[in-house]
């Protein structure tokens, strides 16, 4: 059976079984995740959830990244997971449009602090948790996503449960139950994109997965076939699935190694269009431009077709806004998605010049940009793989610059540098104290 075979694979994969290059990529993923989580830690939505946490009378001894408050492990998983997705700046597995670190990293961080675990234990659990959620995502994508589920949370809950289960030392039966408990808590609607509820999804997946493992540790039972059963996850949540994706080539191929990091603070399907519009913006003045046609796959427009966004969160799902700021400002970082930028007269006016055109011959990860000038001249550019993709990845130097831009305004230069140093050698840490001391 798929679920039981998966559990055996997980429990048989020790830290030393994971290739060094996979561990290195996992550490970069964890580093990127922490940067985007700290960067968004002062967002108003984090304040709202912390207000809820203060109403709950529980033991509070776990850090919130970038904040002085402490909460219990379940609230920490929720808040840190949510914070990391607020800017839509987190890592992406492009094959499934999945953001794997968000549901998993907050779990290993909370348990690592709570139980004084080693860095090697943390990165081992993180790597396997991400691997499991991505393999399950592969099995149900694209039909699951097209049905309307936010795959980061709906499959991320499994990754969170696995990571927690490893750190809580669950046995085979307990981990099988944890997956079942996690699966019945799977959720996340794409209708929420462009609102505060979208980043709530990976946070809640982290919390639900952690809760599943804690319950299984106490002997709480569940189905042992949550993935493959007739009324289990795949058959209920995906009209079409291929469950061989879950276990095939386990330990030989690593999905987390396909993880990419965003140079721009929006959905990754917009990144090719950003590259194209930045290119045009460097060559032409606003007053010269008649229109910019962006030829994209239908799926891109389905996700980012908001023509008149009113908030920064809506702007992240608008090819019109994103193309405009890329042309006007030469970037699409978090600053370009402030509410005031979305509503600025200059940007609103230029949105009229952005014209997305559906072309099914163009893959989701590509774009053809054609600029038409008022004098009738045109120029065409084809972006096959955007900056930050697996094929055109961000360098560690670029990732560090992104991290510093997010973290230094909150924690300062020294702490930002120390966090990088600790995470990139985390397997050598006896506990997380040095890391966590830098995050507040």
From TrEMBL:
Family statement: Belongs to the PrpD family.
Species of the source: Ureibacillus chungkukjangi
**The organism's place on the tree of life at top rank:** Bacteria
Q: Where in this chain does the record put each MmgE/PrpD N-terminal domain? A: 5-244
- Kindly provide the name given to this protein in its UniProt entry: 2-methylcitrate dehydratase PrpD
Stored Pfam families = MmgE_PrpD_C (PF19305), MmgE_PrpD_N (PF03972)
- Show the GO MF annotations: lyase activity
Which intervals hold domain MmgE/PrpD C-terminal? Answer: 264-426
């Amino acid at each position: 059976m798929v679920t039981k075979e998966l559990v055996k694979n997980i429990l048989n994969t020790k830290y030393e079984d994971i290739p060094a290059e996979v561990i290195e990529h996992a550490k970069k993923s964890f580093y990127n995740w922490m940067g985007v989580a700290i960067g968004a830690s002062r967002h108003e939505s984090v304040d709202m959830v912390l207000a809820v946490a203060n109403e709950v009378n529980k033991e509070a001894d776990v850090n919130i990244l970038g904040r002085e408050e402490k909460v219990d492990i379940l609230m920490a998983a929720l808040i840190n997971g949510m914070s990391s997705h607020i800017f839509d700046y987190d890592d992406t597995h492009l094959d499934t449009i999945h953001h794997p670190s968000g549901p998993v990293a907050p779990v290993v961080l909370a348990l690592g602090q709570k139980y004084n675990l080693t860095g090697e234990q943390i990165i081992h659990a993180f790597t396997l948790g991400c691997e499991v959620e991505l393999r399950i995502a592969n099995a149900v994508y694209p039909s699951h996503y097209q049905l309307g589920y936010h795959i980061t949370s709906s499959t991320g809950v499994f990754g969170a449960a696995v990571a927690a289960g490893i750190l809580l030392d669950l046995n085979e039966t307990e981990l099988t139950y944890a997956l079942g408990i996690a699966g019945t808590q799977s959720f996340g609607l794409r209708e929420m994109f462009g609102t505060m509820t979208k980043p709530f999804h990976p946070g809640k997946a982290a919390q639900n997965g952690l809760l599943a493992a804690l319950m299984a540790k106490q002997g709480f039972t569940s189905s042992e076939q949550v993935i493959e059963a007739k009324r289990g996850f795949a058959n209920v949540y995906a009209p079409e699935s291929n469950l061989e994706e879950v276990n095939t080539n386990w330990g030989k191929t690593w999905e987390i190694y396909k993880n990419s990091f965003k140079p721009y603070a929006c959905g990754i399907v917009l990144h090719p269009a950003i590259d194209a519009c930045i290119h045009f913006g460097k060559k032409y003045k606003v007053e010269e431009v008649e229109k910019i046609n962006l030829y994209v796959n239908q799926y891109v427009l389905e996700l980012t077709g908001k023509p008149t966004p009113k908030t920064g969160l809506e702007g992240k799902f608008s090819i019109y806004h994103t193309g405009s700021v890329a042309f006007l400002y030469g970037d699409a970082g978090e600053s370009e998605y402030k509410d005031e930028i979305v509503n600025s007269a200059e940007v609103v006016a230029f949105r009229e010049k952005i014209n997305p055109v559906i072309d099914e011959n163009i893959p989701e990860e590509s774009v053809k940009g054609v600029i038409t000038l008022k004098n009738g001249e045109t120029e065409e550019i084809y972006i096959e793989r955007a900056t930050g993709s697996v094929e055109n990845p961000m360098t560690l130097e670029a990732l560090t610059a992104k991290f510093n831009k997010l973290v230094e305004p909150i924690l300062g230069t020294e702490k930002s540098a120390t966090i990088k140093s600790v995470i990139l050698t985390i397997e050598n840490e006896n506990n997380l104290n040095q890391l966590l001391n830098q995050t507040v």
